[in-house]
Amino acid sequence: MLQVIFSVLLLLFLFRVIRLAVRAAWGLLKVLVFVVLFPGVMLVLAGAGLFILALPALVIGSAAAMLIPA
User: Fold this and answer.
1) 70 band by pLDDT with thresholds 50, 70 and 90
2) Which of 15, 47, 58, 69 is the most exposed place for a label (fewest CB within 10 A)?
3) pLDDT value at position 54?
4) On the CB side of 15, how many CA atoms lie within 13 Å of its CA?
5) What is the C-alpha to C-alpha distance for residues 43 and 58, in angstroms, rounded to an integer?
6) In b/e form, how buried is each residue of 21-32, taking b as 16+ CB within 10 angstroms?
7) What are the residues whose beta carbons fall under 8 Å from the beta carbon of 51, sequence distance 6 or more?
8) What is the DSSP letter of 50?
9) What is 6-28 written as a DSSP string?
10) Of 16, 69, 64, the residue nearest 38 (C-alpha)
């Protein structure tokens, strides 16, 4: 009986730890995308002379950053 109780509690603990890890990884991914990847893509587009693509993407990204609560 103790093995069953231990197994159930261990599974609950593992699911909660996995959920926490996924939430932390998702937060890290969002930070990585918006702080590193998006500005990097904008710089590459501008450096390649593709301002016609970079400017609308920058305007849309800036509007989304201002409208979406942190």
Assistant:
1) low
2) 69
3) 82
4) 6
5) 11
6) eeeeeeeeeeee
7) 45
8) -
9) HHHHHHHHHHHHHHHHHHHHHHH
10) 64
| Segments making up each domain of the chain, as ranges | 2-67
The pLDDT > 90 percentage for the chain reads 0
For 34-68, the pLDDT digits (tens) are 788 888 888 888 888 888 888 888 888 888 878 87
Nearest to 57 by CA among 49, 48, 45, 66: 45
Chain position carrying tokens 């509007």: 63
Between 38-47 and 51-67, two packed helices, what is the crossing angle to 10 degrees? 160
Residues 6+ apart with CB under 8 A from 48: none
